[in-house]
Amino acid sequence: MGDPREPPEGAPEGGSGSDDEFRSVVFDESFVRAARIQELSAQERLDGTYRATRPRVGLGPFGTLPRQAVALLLVVFLAFAAAVYFGVSSPHRQAAPPSGNQLTTSLVALSPTGPVAAVADPEHPFAALPAAYGEGTAGLALPAGAATAHFTRSDVNRALSVVQRYLVASALAPATLVQGETAEVRALVTPGEQAQYDDSVNTPQDDQHHAATGWLVRFDPGKVALAVDGVRTSGVVRVGEADSGTLEVTTDHTFVYAVRAAGTSDGPVSLVSVRRELRFAFDRLDLSSDRLRLVDAVVQAGPTSCGAPMSSYLQPLLAGSTATAPQAVDPGDRSRPAWQVCGALGPLTGKPAAGR
């Protein structure tokens, strides 16, 4: 007797005679019931235009991918697009982590010995200044660039250009002086110092590292207004090397501002002097990106009362004001910072730097 499971003609040639290999394609009953059966009309059969399969939506190269793969690609694309959008549109400026030396600042108040005098001619407030004080950038006296031991003349000129832009933005621009502008100065600071710069501007502290007035000259716009936008300047600039990979530029300038009380247009005008000795450092990456690192800043400002807070704004005494008597300093009181210094304001001169 033959096996009843075998076909009458016997197993096909080359076949195993077993249906094991077809089990993977056997449809169960639920699949058959769910199948959609569509009977063609006579006209459809005659026309021959009816397609037995559902047309595939045209997705180009993705048309042959499984639906799960297409869905995953779509999710990844949307996540990437969202990241780009929020990264570009975020109002918060991102700063690089602090790196290298951070700025150290010393603020010195210069106290007048009597009432602050008003200028004789408010229309020409700088008329009595020595001839050494030039108008704006003319008084910056940047030297001609010359090669150093490890930096080319082009490198030096590029550094001097960035320094000049920094001095203009931080000490000559009215928007910085009395309008609270800080972005232009920030754009010139190396990314490694921008976090310190932001902390200094947003939450100033008199701790030698986070004074806004170490980075820029500014007056409280609620108290002080510029009588004229022009600024008189006198100073020197020196170029050297801190090491073979660091170009160093030191500037020493005195800036003179004509100011009056905020909210007045015809009040008395007086002069405010601010001396800034700044030391800048450039590595080759800074030079290529037109950024600088401000390493040290020493600022003398007067007329100002001794003890007046100067970390957020310089606090000049206006015409007719007198300084409060300085407090006695107890050298044994270590609860007070030792770096707080006050001096007596003397007549403004145009003496050149020592050794010049």
Task: Write a compact overview of the structure shown.
Residues 1-21 are annotated as: Disordered. This protein has 356 residues and is of the alpha+beta class.
Query: In terms of structural class, how would the helical and strand content be classed?
Result: alpha+beta
Rg = 39 Å
What string, H for helix and E for strand, traces the elements in order?
A: HHHEEHHHHHEEEEHEE
Mean pLDDT across the residues is 84
Region (Disordered): 1-21
Keywords: Membrane, Transmembrane, Transmembrane helix
Transmembrane segments: 69-88
SSE arrangement:
Elements: H1 29-34, H2 42-47, H3 67-89, E1 104-111, E2 134-135, H4 153-172, H5 174-178, H6 183-186, H7 191-202, H8 212-215, E3 224-226, E4 232-243, E5 246-261, E6 270-282, H9 284-289, E7 293-302, E8 341-344
Parallel strand pairs: 1-7, 1-8
Antiparallel strand pairs: 2-4, 3-5, 4-5, 5-6, 6-7
What features would you describe in this structure?
- The chain is of the alpha+beta class and 356 residues long.
- It has a domain at 104-325 and 338-344.
- The protein is 24% helix and 19% strand.
- It has helices at residues 29-34, 42-47, 67-89, 153-172, 174-178, 183-186, 191-202, 212-215, 284-289; strands at residues 104-111, 134-135, 224-226, 232-243, 246-261, 270-282, 293-302, 341-344.
- Strands 1, 2, 3, 4, 5, 6, 7 and 8 form an eight-stranded mixed beta sheet that branches.
- The longest helix is centred in the N-terminal third of the chain and has 23 residues, at 67-89.
- The chain crosses the membrane at residues 69-88.
- Keywords: Membrane, Transmembrane, Transmembrane helix.
- Residues 1-21 are annotated as: Disordered.
